Amino acid sequence: MTFFRFTWKNIWRKPLRTLLLTVCVSVAFLIYGLTASFLAGAQGSAGSSDDILGVMSSAGRSHPLPLALLPRITSTPGVAAVTYTARLRGFVGTEKNVVNLTATDPDALLAINGRELGLSADLVGALGAARDRILVGRALADAQGWTVGQQVALTAFQTARQDGDRNWRFEIAGIFEGENASTDTYFMIGRYDYLNAARARDKDTVDAFILRPGDGVSTGALAARIDAAFANSASPTRTQSEKQFLEAFLRQYADVGLIIDLVVGASFTTLLLIVVNTMVFAIRERTFEIGLLKTLGFSRWRILSLVLGETLLIFLAGGVLGLALAKLGAGIAGPALGLILSAVVLAKALALILGLGLATGALPAANAMRIPVTAAFRTR
Q1: Could you tell me the pTM of the whole model?
Q2: What is residue 379's predicted lDDT score, i.e. its pLDDT?
Q3: Closest Cα to residue 170, out of 88, 277, 227?
Q4: What is the secondary structure of 178-240 as a DSSP string?
């Protein structure tokens, strides 16, 4: 009988216990997979780059900046390209179906991060046929079942038209795919001139200016230079990279990274206690058999490896099942929630499987290898 087969037989001595342990492990790694995917999607997408800077009001995103700041920002040394954005947030159909539209200068957006978003000259050119045309991200289009040429009605939460109506109607001119699977494409891109002309309030203002530094220009130094230029103006600014902005935005509500670490840590700590306790009792039940194996010539290290092999197999089965469920959940809800089960997340999960498998098996394995043969036989 091979080492693997012998270990497999020992695991299934009590099938119910093994199944329950596997379920515990799979739930813990399902939690880890989903939370780590959320964090990876929030911080690692192409939309949260360290190479693109956002200029916003120092009073917060709810305070718009005047569009008149554009020439001064454009002329700042080190700025390669600039555009501006205004956000239209609302719902389609039901209030739970929330979508966002980014109104901008499409040509300038193409120059700044067209590659990351998967924009092309043809897609941007399609917006020129009419001011109410939009581009839709692939994730959003798939989630909503939208196609090119379809009419979309977005009901804004706050931004009203001049007649007081909050319903904005658009025609889909194209779908942008994003540079890769991690790119956030769950939003729409529209024309700022259409939104600015039709809205009742905040005319000639923007939520942010988006810029790309020139080659070799330090983003930190450029951000400080821009903020210093407007420090004593009527519209002081705060300039951050998109990644820094997203992290700061999430911290408005909570330290998401800390919360995720605490949740994952609590689940793995509970898992460790459950598995260690269960394996200690399982080894105690097999004291006589362990003594018999030692009598037949099994070394203490061979006994140790058998017990560690059992816990590793349980963690491997449960971990793979939990990660598979997390992958399924990310595939279903990923476009809307930004879940990305990346290769880095999977690599960390594999390391956790191996580490926890060895850690939980260490105590029962050490107990097994130290059992004297005479004491083992006295249990019968």
Answers
A1: 0.64
A2: 67
A3: 88
A4: -SSTTS---SEEEEHHHHHHHBSSSTTEESEEEEEEPTT--HHHHHHHHHHHTTTSSS-EEEE
